Amino acid sequence: MIKKFQQTIKAPWFKIGLGIVIFTIISTCAPRRVRGPFKPKPCLECHSKKLGEFKKAYIHSPMEKKDCEACHLRHGRLPVKSLKERGARL
To answer: What domain range includes position 18?
Structure first.
């Protein structure tokens, strides 16, 4: 029985199979690469149409400072038109 086991270990198919098993175990147990959190970008990077507003005679003061969040809530991938306050309270 020991001789048969030793012959099996020497067989090339056994080494290939053992290699596949070890690779499978290592690859399934390895931690997955975690995708980083959403990184906020400057507002004008996505809202490039607003760049024309800088050429107007009157420029909204927070926009002049590129501080959109003074009036608007920051949003992520989903476009949301939301002001922090309504009406003249801004």
So the answer is: 1-31
